[in-house]
Fold these 2 entries.
Entry 1:
Amino acid sequence: MYFNENSIVYFNGSFIKAKEASVQAYSQTLHYGNGVFEGIRAYKTGRGVKIFKPYEHYKRLRYGAHVMGIDLNYSEEELTEITYQLLEKNNLKDAYIRPLVVTGSDMSLLTSKETCLIIQCWEWDKYMGDRLLRVKTSSFQRPNPKSCFVEAKVTGHYTNSILSTNEAKNAGYDEALLLDMNGNVAECSGANVFMQKNGKLYTPPRGHIMAGITRATVIELCKEEGISVEEKHFTLEELKNADACFFTGTAAEVVGLQSLDNYQFPLVWEKSHGHKLIKLYKDEVLGLRQKRKAS
Ligand code: PMP
């Protein structure tokens, strides 16, 4: 599904066949989860293939590498250029892009000086699909921000996402919603959350969550469209009193919720801001809004 005989990856300075790209069994990333990654999308637009917000994604990758002490000697511009070349070599237009920085063989608990940048890409539909999601509140919390850098996409942090997704799916739900250590709503296992109440949107502020690039884009779109949005902590009880709710993320884009545990969101989805934002977001990633703004 992710690669075939002909797939090409970027591997530490060269483009090689995906089937030949392997990492050392002694890599610190495998043993301790000390690696960083990104999730980016490219879209086929009327003006050719466009990677959506590559600078912002690569800035976050560089930030993650920096806080983990991982050497990543590429600028945002260089990484973007390599990614465009990679898409072309794979003849991909609508694609999901996965840059990953793995660390070398070192069994100490100090970051290895050896690093390897791998960039992979493949075709991937909306990660959570198009239908409204049935979500379960997780028994797992998002990590304490004093135990790690929550805004860094560190490979090891994703065991928390895996635990919560396994739990939700095993109980028959589509996805998990996690609270933070203070009991406030934080985010989904791989996406941010917005709730709608009395015509206004609310989303948790930064601090305990991934600073999603889709989240920032949606906030920007709301401002442009006159949809009132506020970054504010809210509890599970408040969310179970909301009119509607949706998740945002690069892989998931914008996707609505049908229910949270036993609570059904009462507003008809088609009448919610979330539904409108699906289209606004699509137009934004396809560069149609800029054109409209310019004309
Ligand atoms: N929260 C978590 C935990 C994530 O892994 C992601 C995906 N990076 C997001 C939110 C959404 O972030 P973005 O919109 O930048 O993809």
Note: The chain has two domains: 8-122, 133-285.
Entry 2:
Amino acid sequence: MSETNVDPRNSVLVKAARGEEVPYTPVWFMRQAGRSLPEYRKVREGVGMLESCRRPDLVTEITMQPVRRHHVDAAIFFSDIVVPLAAVGVDLDIVAGVGPVVAQPIRTRADLDRLPELTPDAVPDITESVKLLTAELGGTPLIGFAGAPFTLASYLVEGGPSKNHENTKALMYGDPELWNDLCARLAQISGAFLRVQAEAGASAVQLFDSWVGNLPLADYLRFVQPHSRQALAAVEGLDVPKIHFGVGTGELLSAMGEAGADVVGVDFRVDLDAARERTGGQYALQGNLDPALLFAPWEPLEAKVDEIVAAGRRAKGHIFNLGHGVLPSTDPDVITRVVARVHEISAR
Ligand code: CP3
């Protein structure tokens, strides 16, 4: 809902993230900006994905599109997790229908030596985009984001998307020192990217560790958590709530919270009540409607939405979202209807 004359750092979404009382359950969707929207496909015509992420005019327009159309309670900064990697000089491209593809994978110490730290002067356009956006958004908060060290490492080590992450795990176990140095560098890059957005005016941040659900808890604790903690710590002191999300992370929810999150993102495989129990009720939760259910008939979909809102009210705080991103062929009108339903049923 549009919140006028409100400081976005005191908006419904930010309050829910902090576990404070809210007048209704706030809602946004991962990948709410993107191919499900005809107006997105139109402005992206003939413009490459990475280029569109570096043009403040396009970033602003694309980020605003779902806010205007769906009346969601937050905007998510239009960018990609590999943008900061490209900004420090990694030769990569985002291939439509595939994802990020890296020209020279990182597998040796010499490869790592070619990966510099991220300084804010490498991304002045990000600061500019955030400033344009916060001016246009008024009381609606902007969520900044970055990829977490593990997920970024997996793209860099594999050279592209991977199902089994075999090269990543081989490096982790084969040369733990190099793995840790790589992830420490990525935590710096990721943290700096979050900090640039928060300093420019983003009201919350989300750290995406999309593929970390491929690890057992023991490996997560040993090889990943310290680095994610480092990335999240980069915005400490800026008074922005930190959301931490991954796919298939049912076994890792507590550990991800302990990495320094205020809000734990839950995918659609874990019941929200179970997620609350697993995390000891310590965190606000975000989630977790299965994006595929947006293709189901309205009645059962609505019942599922209501069920998630009810479970969310038992949590310390709840931000309604999907359990992963909007699928490109989703009917945008269904998304608008879900937003309205969440607001209606959660009003208190
Ligand atoms: O609305 C939003 O959520 C903001 C935009 C956003 C994008 N990427 C835009 C994008 C966000 C938050 C991301 C993060 C991202 N990128 C993640 C983490 C979130 C997740 O989905 O788990 C990951 C793993 C990536 C890497 C990546 N980039 C993938 C897997 C893909 C999809 C490839 C494809 O074409 O299906 C991309 C490309 C991408 N990022 C698109 C968008 C809108 C599609 C490219 C296009 O529209 O041309």
Note: The longest strand covers residues 142-147.
